[in-house]
Amino acid sequence: MRFDIVTLFPDFFTSPLQTSLLGRALQNQIAQVYLTNPRDFTTDKHHRVDDEPYGGGAGMLLKPEPLFVAVESLPHLPPREVVLLSPQGEPLTQTVLAEFAENYAQLVLLCGHYEGVDERVRQHLVTREVSIGDFVLTCGEIPALTLLNGIVRLLPGTVGKTDSLRDESFSEGLLEYPQYTRPASFRGWDVPEILRSGNHGAIAAWRKAQQLQRTRDRRPDLWDAGSQNSAPTEG
């Protein structure tokens, strides 16, 4: 899968693209990431990528010309989406990550800055907008890296044990169950006896009950959205 990140700050990605599972996935050609700076596609001597908004207002907007030409310079590998990272976009969820990972050969990620982008970019260049939450950041590189990381870890070959992807939080609309490792007792806090019983059926039932309880207590929004309707009731 190919990712093209259109960013004013390519150096932002230097360390993350070389680190941990993401770095190994790129080394193994599970995914390819290319960085494109729209400043390289400006035509004025100052290489300006922003300007004041028509009608007045605070801040600056990214100009349309450098973004359009930057994206048009890229190869086109269908199926493809041109994604703007924006607070106005659809919420990023595990379902959205899985959709991208399973259905697309290329994602072009546009990193916003300043007060946003010229509306013509949104209307005529971007095919999808994604938001990582109801808050504002100083740059679009952080959401782009979040999207990239979340997708690449779902691609075959990135994660050694695929069971860990199936059992993690949000995979069934529920939070993950509590997990423990050795020692069995630490400072007087013991691992639940059921997890040391060797009874796999009882362990599975305990874990499902914990998922239900934890989701209901910590994420009532998920619970109210109907997660409990697709899961067995607690015994």
Question: How would you characterize the overall build of this protein?
Answer:
- A hairpin with a 2-residue loop joins strand 8 (185-186) and strand 9.
- The chain folds into two domains: 2-152, 3-Layer(aba) Sandwich (Alpha/beta knot), CATH 3.40.1280.10; 169-230, tRNA(m1g37)methyltransferase, domain 2 (Trp Operon Repressor, Chain A, Orthogonal Bundle).
- It has 235 residues and is of the alpha/beta class.
- It is elongated, with a radius of gyration of 22 Å.
- The protein has helices spanning 20-27, 64-72, 94-103, 119-124, 141-152, 163-167, 200-218, 220-224; strands at residues 2-6, 32-36, 50-51, 61-62, 80-91, 106-111, 128-131, 185-186, 189-190.
- A five-stranded parallel beta sheet has the order 2-1-6-5-7. Strands 3-4 form a two-stranded antiparallel sheet. Strands 8-9 form a two-stranded antiparallel sheet.
- The longest helix has 19 residues, at 200-218.
Summary of the model, kept short:
This protein has helices spanning about 20-25, 65-70, 95-105, 120-125, 140-150, 165, 200-220, 220-225, and strands at about 1-5, 30-35, 50, 60, 80-90, 105-110, 130, 185, 190.
Shape designation: elongated
Number of helices: 8
Terminal CA distance: 44 Å
CATH classification class of the largest domain: Alpha Beta
How would you classify the helix and strand content by structural class? Answer: alpha/beta
Strand order of the largest sheet: 2-1-6-5-7
Radius of gyration, in angstroms, nearest whole number: 22 Å
Using brief descriptors, characterize the structure shown.
single chain, 235 residues, alpha/beta, Trp Operon Repressor, Chain A, 2 domains, 5-stranded parallel sheet, elongated
